[in-house]
Design a protein that fits this description.
Layout: H1 20-23, E1 29-31, H2 34-39, H3 49-53, E2 59-60, E3 70-71, E4 79-83, E5 86-87, E6 92-93, E7 98-99, E8 106-112, E9 126-132, E10 141-146, E11 150-160, E12 164-173, H4 175-179, E13 188-204, E14 209-226, E15 232-254, E16 257-278, E17 281-302, E18 308-330, E19 335-358, E20 362-375, E21 378-392, E22 397-408, E23 410-413, E24 424-427, E25 435-448, E26 453-470, H5 479-483, E27 494-510, E28 515-529, E29 539-540, E30 547-558, E31 561-570, E32 574-575, E33 578-588, E34 591-601, E35 607-608, E36 612-624, E37 629-637, E38 645-659, E39 662-673, E40 678-686
């Protein structure tokens, strides 16, 4: 009997084990369900990865309407955000309102906030590991989404069937184009938009070798430009953007070992500019800042023994920092001044970790990371132990514990603390050494089989040293810095201190069935101390938040209709409020004149804003067309129109009546809110 082999299509079954989280050795690690990226209601209908991450316990949401991440008391600069192994230095569009990650291009999202494996390093608070889709090897698929402020398109498919595939996504806002007809009579037209492009190529060379090439390009522009034929013309604004790229070679050595060799590039640039033209005279001034790095990393995974999974690796990264570059031009006097400051640093690491299955009792992940950091003539060596363990009490209940020590060789100069593009990256130096932190965690996981849900409780304590903060009244954008000769101008304007954070996090999560979502609650404290601030006394961090609640529910009624809601509550942020105001007078001869006011401030961050809470609703109608799937989405942000505080100001009011010739006046605290009830519609076609 002769048998003739016949090739059939590959069958791939993907799923997630119900006991995965309780059986894993890692603690403080969460995977974000991809379903949530497309169903959770969003601000103005823009599907935003970071806004979904904000809904997880242990992640502070920052100010209302922003997408910054503050994880377990850490600053926004202490999060390592990586896209296909390439770090992203500013992950925000539109002054922090949206993130730069498109849900259509994302394969998986993992947030690490506690038991850091030895393979991660360089940051103190968290790691957000985002992996892009590889692209379909057999068929072409795509998506087109039309929203109120932006549209995006995604296409993927084979270049060579079963051999090479591609993925391409793009997004751009068009608020500037929609408003242009209404601004014809304006002498100055505002310019504001952002765009991003994501691409990936997946080449399966043979059964043992595969090449991945991925990249991201995005930018924002915000400013104003004169139009018409007037003698005075002005063009001014701010632009910022990111570029990332990674080239990875995956090699399968045998059935028990594979390796990845990755070349990485990443950069972030900021530019502010002013151009003025009066008749034939021209004046221009620019300020720019940036950071870029090139790195190479090599990792090996080895599973020679059934009870051990060994990972070893090394990496080297070179940095170029340009904290300050300025130009000044004046055509009439043929004057041109230019100054730029560039600093270079080198960072390398070697790590090893082993995940051990201890019979039927549990798992242990133990690792050690050795790191080097050099800048100019300064050399620093670090040893970072990492360990996390899980003990199985029953088939459904596990106890977890972990400890990690980290170092960070970058600083973010910020005058706002909310991650605006004007924040500047600078390297650690002799005067401002690297930041250090350690965290200890303890928790438990219970798989509730009858309702197919998981309940986790985790407590942590974290200390950090070498944190920096601007001195009171200082600014790193002073004119003498921009046009002077101060190469290390930031070192004179910041102070160093330490912080500690402690908290307990609860998470009840359901990932299967028609009803999915989670309920998260965080009770936390974050305290900071700087010898030069607040008379040397410790004070609450700006984003210290005592209570934080997030409820996310997604329900699919049938294949044509689904709904989702989120409700969030948080204790108000801490801020500084004046406690006394008095006239500041000066004698001019025999005459006393008022020269302003003397303000006596209270303790730094000694006052709390009002609590924030908000309900968001999302409804989606799905219709099957001949060649596509149509999804009409209605998102309602802040459904009950809660006026959450964005910031407060103190206003001086004078009353009309007077006593004895002196008018009565008072100071009033006024609250400003940002977002009222905001409905939005979007239309998506998946084909």
């Amino acid at each position: 009997v002769e048998l003739i082999p016949e090739e059939i299509e590959q069958v791939v079954i993907e799923g997630q084990a119900h006991h995965e989280s309780s059986r894993s050795a890692r603690i403080g690690t969460l995977q974000v369900a991809k379903r949530a990226l497309f169903e959770v209601p969003m601000l103005l209908g823009e599907r935003d990865v970071l806004r979904v991450v904000q809904l997880l316990p242990g992640v502070n949401k920052g100010r209302e309407g922003t997408s910054g991440l503050y994880v377990r008391g850490g600053g926004i600069d202490q999060n390592l955000i990586i896209l296909d192994d390439a770090p992203v230095y500013n992950a925000h569009h539109l002054m922090g309102m949206f993130s730069l990650f498109s849900g259509n291009s994302i394969k998986s999202i993992e947030l690490v906030k506690g038991g850091f494996p030895a393979r991660y390093g360089g940051r103190l608070a968290s790691v957000l590991d985002i992996v892009m889709e590889d692209g379909n090897m057999r068929e072409y698929h795509g998506s087109l989404s039309l929203g109120l402020i932006a549209s995006q398109v995604s296409v993927q498919g084979p270049i060579v069937k079963n051999k090479v595939s591609f993925l391409l996504t793009g997004r751009r806002t068009y608020a500037d184009l929609l408003l242009a007809p209404f601004m014809i009579n304006l002498e100055q037209r505002p310019v504001f938009y952002f765009y991003d492009l994501t691409a990936k190529i997946n080449w399966q060379i043979d059964s043992r070798n595969r090449i991945f090439l991925s990249g991201y390009l995005g930018a924002d522009k915000f400013g104003a430009k004169s139009i018409g034929s007037s003698a005075l013309k002005m063009d001014m604004g701010i632009t910022w953007g990111n570029k990332t790229g990674s080239l990875r070679w995956n090699h399968l050595w045998n059935a028990n070992a594979f390796s990845n060799l990755t070349l990485i590039y990443s950069s972030y640039d900021l530019l502010t500019y002013v151009k003025v033209k009066i008749n034939n005279d021209e004046f221009s001034q620019t300020f720019s800042s940036g950071i870029q790095n090139v790195g190479l990393k090599y990792d090996v995974n080895w599973t020679q023994w059934a009870n051990h999974t060994i990972r070893i690796g090394t990496q080297i990264i070179g940095y170029q920092f340009v904290p300050m570059a300025t130009t000044f031009k004046l055509s009439t006097k043929r004057l041109r001044e230019q100054s730029a400051t560039a600093l270079y640093s080198l960072e390398s690491a070697l790590y090893a970790e082993d995940e051990i299955q201890v019979s039927d009792y549990g798992r242990i992940n133990v690792g050690l990371r050795g790191a080097y950091y050099g800048i100019e003539r300064s050399h620093n060596f670090f040893v970072e132990p990492r360990i996390s363990a899980t003990g199985y009490l029953t088939d459904d209940i596990s106890l977890k514990a972990g400890y990690a020590l980290m170092n960070q060789n970058l600083h973010l100069l910020s005058s706002t603390g909310i991650g605006l593009p004007t924040d500047l990256w600078v390297p650690a130096t002799n005067r401002l050494p690297p930041q250090k932190s350690w965290i200890a965690s303890l928790g438990g996981v219970y798989d509730i089989s009858p309702i197919r849900s998981t309940l986790s409780i985790e407590g942590y304590y974290r200390e950090s040293k070498g944190n920096i903060m601007l001195q009171e009244g200082a600014s790193f954008l002073d004119s003498e810095d921009l046009f002077g000769q101060q190469i290390r101008y930031w070192e004179d304007k910041v102070v160093r201190g330490w912080s500690w954070s402690a908290g307990v996090e609860f998470l009840l999560q359901r990932k299967v069935g028609n009803l999915t979502g989670w309920l998260g609650y965080t009770l936390s404290w974050t305290r900071v101390q700087f010898p030069e601030l607040n008379h040397g006394r410790s004070f609450w961090a700006t984003y210290d938040r005592r209570h934080d609640v997030s409820l996310v529910a997604m329900y699919r009624f049938n294949e044509h209709f689904r709904m989702a809601l989120t409700w969030v509550y948080g204790t108000g942020n801490a801020f500084t409020l004046p406690r006394a105001v008095a006239p500041n007078k000066k004698l001019w001869g025999s005459i006393e004149q008022a020269t302003g006011e003397y303000i006596d401030y209270s303790e730094l961050n000694g006052v709390r804003m009002g609590a924030t809470h908000r309900l968001d609703l999302g409804i989606q109608w799905i219709k099957k067309l001949k060649y596509a799937e149509q999804i009409l989405s209605l998102d309602i942000y802040n459904a009950y129109a809660r006026k959450n505080p964005f910031f407060y100001t103190v206003e001086h009011t004078t009353k009309n009546f007077h006593y004895g010739g002196y008018y009565s006046s008072e100071y009033v605290l006024k609250k400003f809110s940002l977002f009222p009830l905001l409905p939005s519609l979007s239309l998506t076609y998946n084909f």
